[in-house]
Amino acid sequence: MRLDLSAALSRPELLAAPVRDALPKVADIDSVRVAPIDPGLADTAAFCAAYDVTLEQSANCVIVVGKPAGVFAACVILATTRVDVNGAVRRLLGTRKASFAPMDEAVSRSGMEYGGITPIGLPEDWPIYVDARVPAVESAVIGSGLRASKIVLPGSVIAALPGATVVDGLAV
Question: Which residue range is the domain that position 103 belongs to?
Fold first, then answer.
């Protein structure tokens, strides 16, 4: 991993405002690091290739919406998998249908940049579903709320976020 890591709270300029505000509530805050990256390389495949991060270390936070109720949730999965939106997520939300949230809605509701959305700092009424494979990752790389940086933290810390539920079969 070729990232210039710093303690997350020591580099507030590398964090979206909702992430900065929520970080003090994260369990084991001392294990949370942040690194600047080229914002043009924020998308998973390009980022992993440029910064020598494996897909197994990279986690994605996907915003979904259940319909017709309009219930939003975050799903955290490894980059080697894809979220089971119409199966597991739909059942978890208790809705007839689920889909990926439109980009403009995910950005406006989260207060984060597209391509940098993270489960840290999302609206408190949004459930956070974490695929059961994520907690086992020693150093998971995920968005910081901005395209210009990434957060690195143990997968177990993601699983312990307020509002998080670890789910078997969230991703396939």
Answer: 6-165
